[in-house]
C-alpha cells in the first residue's frame, strides 16, 4: 500500500514552477520554459483581432531592449470574443508581417474554462503580490523570475513598456 501511495504521489505532484510544463511552439516543436533559466520570462496570452493587439509591437520592443534580462513568450488564445481564430501558420505570419515578432510563440492554447491549459491553470492560481484568479481578457501578462516562479501579474491595460512593468526587469 505504501508503494502505491508513493507512485500516486509521483504521478500527481503539483508543479513547483513554470519549468514543469511541456509546451509546443507555434511550429509544433516541443519546448520547455526551463531553457530560459537564469532570465525572467514574460508570459502573455495574445490574440490577433483584439483592441490590445498593437501591444505585440511593444512586446517585441521589450524583447529587444531587455534581451539580456527577459524573454517574452506569447500564447495565442481564442477565449475572448473569438479574437484568435487563425491557424498556427496564420497567427505566426500575422505577427511577423504586422509587428515584426521574433519572440517565441506557442501553439494556440485555452487560458480559461474547462479546457484551460495546465500552465495557465498554474499561473492563475499561483501566489503573487498582485492578484490571482481567472484571466479577464487578452494580453494579460505574467512575469516569471529567474527560478521559474510567478512574481508579478498585470492586466491587459498595463502596456509592456510601462514603468509599472519595466521596473521589475
TrEMBL record:
<dbReference type="GO" id="GO:0006979">
    <property type="term" value="P:response to oxidative stress"/>
</dbReference>
<keyword id="KW-0575">Peroxidase</keyword>
<dbReference type="InterPro" id="IPR036249">
    <property type="entry name" value="Thioredoxin-like_sf"/>
</dbReference>
<dbReference type="Pfam" id="PF00255">
    <property type="entry name" value="GSHPx"/>
</dbReference>
<dbReference type="InterPro" id="IPR029759">
    <property type="entry name" value="GPX_AS"/>
</dbReference>
<feature type="active site">
    <location>
        <position position="50"/>
    </location>
</feature>
<dbReference type="InterPro" id="IPR013766">
    <property type="entry name" value="Thioredoxin_domain"/>
</dbReference>
<feature type="domain" description="Thioredoxin">
    <location>
        <begin position="12"/>
        <end position="169"/>
    </location>
</feature>
<dbReference type="GO" id="GO:0004601">
    <property type="term" value="F:peroxidase activity"/>
</dbReference>
<comment type="similarity">
    <text>Belongs to the glutathione peroxidase family.</text>
</comment>
<protein>
    <recommendedName>
        <fullName>Glutathione peroxidase</fullName>
    </recommendedName>
</protein>
<dbReference type="InterPro" id="IPR000889">
    <property type="entry name" value="Glutathione_peroxidase"/>
</dbReference>
<keyword id="KW-0732">Signal</keyword>
<feature type="signal peptide">
    <location>
        <begin position="1"/>
        <end position="19"/>
    </location>
</feature>
<keyword id="KW-0560">Oxidoreductase</keyword>
Amino acid at each position: 500500500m505504501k508503494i502505491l501511495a508513493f507512485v500516486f504521489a509521483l504521478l500527481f505532484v503539483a508543479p513547483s514552477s513554470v519549468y514543469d510544463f511541456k509546451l509546443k511552439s507555434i511550429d509544433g516543436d516541443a519546448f520547455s520554459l526551463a531553457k530560459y533559466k537564469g532570465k525572467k520570462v514574460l508570459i502573455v496570452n495574445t490574440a490577433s483581432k483584439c483592441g490590445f493587439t498593437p501591444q505585440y509591437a511593444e512586446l517585441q520592443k521589450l524583447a529587444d531592449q531587455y534581451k539580456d534580462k527577459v524573454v517574452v513568450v506569447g500564447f495565442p488564445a481564442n477565449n475572448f470574443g473569438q479574437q484568435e481564430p487563425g491557424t498556427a501558420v496564420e497567427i505566426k505570419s500575422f505577427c511577423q508581417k504586422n509587428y515584426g515578432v521574433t519572440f517565441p510563440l506557442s501553439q494556440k492554447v485555452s487560458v480559461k474554462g474547462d479546457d484551460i491549459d495546465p500552465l495557465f491553470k498554474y499561473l492563475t492560481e499561483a501566489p503573487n503580490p498582485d492578484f490571482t484568479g481567472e484571466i479577464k481578457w487578452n494580453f494579460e501578462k505574467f512575469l516569471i523570475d529567474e527560478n521559474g516562479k510567478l512574481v508579478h501579474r498585470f492586466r491587459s491595460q498595463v502596456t509592456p513598456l510601462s514603468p509599472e512593468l519595466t521596473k521589475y526587469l
